[in-house]
């Protein structure tokens, strides 16, 4: 019998070394994982979890992913944020939490993991709704983010609303549809943002039933036409959850994309006179 791809969501993972707070709310926190082995400090990886922005899903389901990234030698932060179904979640708290966390975590992680976090822009790894939030945060604060790995992101909120993904998840996040709250879609939808994101790799499985691959195809095509440094990697025979499973067939593609993001970000930082 084939393994349930959702099994990664509840797979046990080592506990993080420390949890830091970037705000006063109990969910304005992040779990930090120390990089394995010895070597020079590396930029922080910030993992933004998915779950259609709903309170039922939290950062713990990205434990196997975060632990595997730390085992590769990366300092990792698993970002938590307020979600729909809890006070302060939804519009605008969910988005402002992620933006604030991304801005604060490189400094907080460097203090908590001395000598292991490079003074460089962070790389964001976001899955599903977390992919949307990573794209949003990177476009809002490109000076803080060196690159984005977006895994099956909800990259078009208006289309996701029309498709009624996860039974009204986008309406719950933004408080209505594009006709009711157009200004919120203009601010929160990655495709509507005027600022181009930094170097971005989007990976999407063609068998994805939770977030159709067409959302990524349209988003990447539009971003490339606008001049964004972005590419799309489609994985045949891959569904939604395999992208965050370090034991799955997609893992070499994930790690390869991360290497390319680090190399590109380092080259840009080295060429910038202000860094």
Automatic annotation (TrEMBL):
The keyword Thylakoid does not apply. GO terms for molecular function: hydrolase activity. Residues 31-218 form the BD-FAE-like domain. The keyword Transcription regulation does not apply. Pfam families: BD-FAE. Keywords: Hydrolase. This is Lipase. It comes from Micromonospora sonchi. The lineage of its organism: Bacteria, Bacillati, Actinomycetota, Actinomycetes, Micromonosporales.
């Amino acid at each position: 019998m084939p393994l349930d791809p959702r099994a990664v969501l509840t797979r046990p993972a080592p506990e993080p070394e420390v949890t830091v707070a970037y705000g006063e709310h109990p969910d304005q926190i992040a779990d930090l994982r120390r990089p394995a082995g010895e070597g020079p400090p590396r930029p922080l990886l910030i993992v933004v979890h998915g779950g259609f922005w709903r309170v039922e899903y939290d950062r713990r389901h990205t434990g196997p992913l975060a632990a595997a990234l730390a085992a590769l030698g990366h300092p990792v932060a698993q970002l938590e944020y307020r979600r729909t179904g809890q006070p302060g979640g939804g519009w605008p708290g969910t988005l402002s939490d992620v933006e604030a966390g991304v801005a604060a975590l490189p400094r907080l992680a460097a203090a908590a993991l001395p000598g292991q976090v490079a003074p460089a822009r962070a790389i964001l790894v976001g899955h599903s709704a977390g992919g949307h939030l990573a794209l949003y945060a990177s476009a809002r604060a490109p000076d803080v983010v060196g690159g984005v790995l977006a895994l099956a992101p909800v990259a078009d909120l208006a289309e996701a609303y029309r498709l009624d993904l996860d039974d009204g998840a986008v309406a719950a996040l933004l408080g209505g549809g594009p006709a009711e709250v157009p200004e919120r879609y203009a601010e929160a939808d990655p495709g509507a943002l005027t600022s181009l994101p930094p170097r971005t790799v989007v990976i999407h499985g063609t068998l994805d039933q939770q977030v159709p691959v067409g959302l990524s195809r349209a988003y990447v095509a539009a971003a490339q036409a606008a001049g964004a440094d972005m590419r799309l990697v489609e994985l045949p025979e891959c569904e939604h959850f395999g992208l965050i499973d370090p034991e799955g067939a997609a893992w070499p593609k994930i790690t390869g994309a991360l290497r390319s993001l680090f190399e590109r970000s380092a080259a840009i930082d080295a060429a910038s006179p202000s860094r």
